[in-house]
Amino acid sequence: METVRLGAVGLGWFGGVLAESARASGEAEVVACFARSEDGRRAFAEAHGCTPVESLDALLDDPTIGGVDVATPHSTHAELVEQAAAAGKHVFVEKPLALTVTDARRAIDATARAGVSLQVGHNRRRQPANRRIRSMIESGELGTVVQLEGFHSSPGAHKPDLPAWRTDPDECPAGGMTALGVHTVDTFNYLVGPAARLAAFSKKVTGSSTLDEATAVTIEYESGPIGQIGTSYFVPGLVSLAVYGTDMNVWNEEDGAQLFTQARADKSRSQQAVDQIDTIQDEMAEFARCIRDGVQPQTGGAEGLEVAAVLEGIAMSVESGRAIDLSSLR
User: Fold this and answer.
1) CATH number corresponding to 125-276+309-328
2) Is the pTM of this model over 0.90?
3) Backbone dihedral angles phi then psi of residue 289, each to the nearest 5 degrees
C-alpha cells in the first residue's frame, strides 16, 4: 500500500496532532509544512520529521503531495481550501469548516470544481459509543427519540501559551463553541439529522476574559426531538451526551469511554461494554483513502456546512435574543 504524502498548513498544537496521527495510521505522512513564522516552520519540521517550505505556493506546487491538512484560524479556512483545491490538492480541514454558511459554500464549491475531496475534522461521531447509539436509534431500540443533551468543556482558555486567535471573539464566537461545542453539534446531527431552528445564550460570567465563559443552546431538529448543548472553555474537562427515547435512554460518558442504558421498565441504568479507538488516527487513515482510493469522507462538505449553519445561527441568536430558523441561512 502506497503511503500518501501530505502537506501541513497551520503548525500549532493540533497541526502536530494531525501529523502524528497521520503517521500512526500507517497510511499517510506529513512530508512538508508551512506557516508564516520561519521559527514555527523549523520547530514543526524538527518535531515531526518533515521539510519546512518558505511559501504556501511552494507546498501546493509540489506534485508529490496529494493532500493538505489545514489547522489554521477558522476565518482562514475557506480561502486556504480554495487555494489548495485550485492546485489540485485534496483537503482535510480541522473543524469547524467555517463560521458562516457562505464561507462553507466557498470551500465546498472550490473542491467540487477541482474534483478533489474535502474532509472536515469532526472526529467525535467516530467514537464506537456514538456509533452504537446511532445503531440503537436506527433499530428502534430507543423508541422515538424525544430529547438529547450534551456538555463539552475544557479549561483550555486558562493556558498561558494559548494562541491569541483562540481568545479572539471574532474567531471563537460563543465562547467554547468552536473549540469544543461543535463536536456535540455534529454528533447530534449524526444521530438525529439536521437542525431546524435554535435559540442560544452566551455570556461572560466572571468578566475576566475576552471570550464568553458559558454557552447554552437549545435546538429543534427537523426529525422532531429537541437538543440542549452546553459548552465552556473555562471549567474542568467534561465530554458527555445523552439521548432520551420513549423506550430507552442512553448515555455516552467520559468522552466515549463509558456507555450506559436504561430501559423504560428499569429502575436504574446499566453499563454496557464499548470499544475504544483513536478517532483522529481513524480520520487521517480515511483521508489517505480518499486521496488514494477515491472513497467519500464520512464528514465532508455537506456535514461541515450543517455545523456552520448552527454556528452562524448561534451567533445570530445571541446577538438578537431570538430564535433563528436555520432554513433562512441554508
Assistant:
1) 3.30.360.10
2) yes
3) -70, -35
